[in-house]
Amino acid sequence: MAVKVRIPTPLQRLTQGKEEVEGKSGTVINLINDLETRYPGIAERISEGGKVRRFVNIYVNEEDIRFLQAEQTQVKDGDEVSIVPAIAGGGITVER
Amino acid sequence: MEFTEDQLQRYSRHIILPEVGGKGQKKLLNAKVFIIGAGGLGCPVGYYLAAAGVGTIGMIDNDTVELSNLQRQIAHSTRTLGMPKIDSAKNTFEALNPDVKVVGIKERISKDNIKDLIKCYDVVVDGSDNFPTRYLVNDACVMLKKPLVSGAILRFEGQVTTILPGDGHCYRCLFEEMPPAGLVPSCQEAGVIGAITGVVGSLQALEVVKLILGKGEVLKNTLLIYDALRTTFRRVKIPKNPDCPVCGSKPTITELQDYDAGYCRL
What we know:
heterodimer; A: alpha+beta; globular; B: alpha/beta
């Protein structure tokens, strides 16, 4: 049993359309770097210089890692990790 | 205020609910709700609030109805193409329910007008489609202590949360910074499945109704994430950030700014 990682819609292009992938137990940042080996480009979208980007949140089960041990938060097999980026769509047409 | 015969019939399915009753229906009729955007989310939110008899609905949007809007923006129609969206929406909502007064404002929302626009309203609903507006609306609502029901959609994904300033989290507690321009696609670039606006907008309308009635639980300190492709709802916790720059104990943002430098304009 591995860590379940939920991939948000905007990043599913990098995971061949998969909404859920398997991750490695350990720290969150190691999990992200491990995802990168299988899904190139994903780490850069989520993090920068070992830190999770400030418009992306990562939850272990329901908890925001910023209020746990941030990138060093430990995840274990059976945990569910959700990657949740800010989205803004709603309806006012954007003029170019 | 006494109900008319028509009102007793119109709202009978509400009044029969113990959580609403005649008292709750009067609260709805006396309520004032301000909606940012008359687009994908603003349409269903306004539609259901109008049907529910929310007495005053303020709405701001600077755009006119385009053909590409009609796949999801259900308050507009082929007949209102080219019309300002707020006029089109006002016609639709007032035709549905003459008890409702729609105050439409055809302007761009900015740091200079937002506080005056929302100050007389009980609840604010964010249905905007860009980050600068989201952060501006959040900051203004925190400063004026206005409850804010925030919804966002992209492709097949929706997010909803309810911000109660002074009590729960704010949008900046959730996402500390807005993404740099270009990194997160807009609906125009990325697409959006039409009916998701109905799901997310209806969830927002229900949050507003519960706030007005003072019943049930709202999405305080919670982000609801809807995945339309898999038909799943997930909830994650949003703790209030004690160091939040706008709602924390030592705020560094005490005046409104326009955050749209480098962004497309509304």
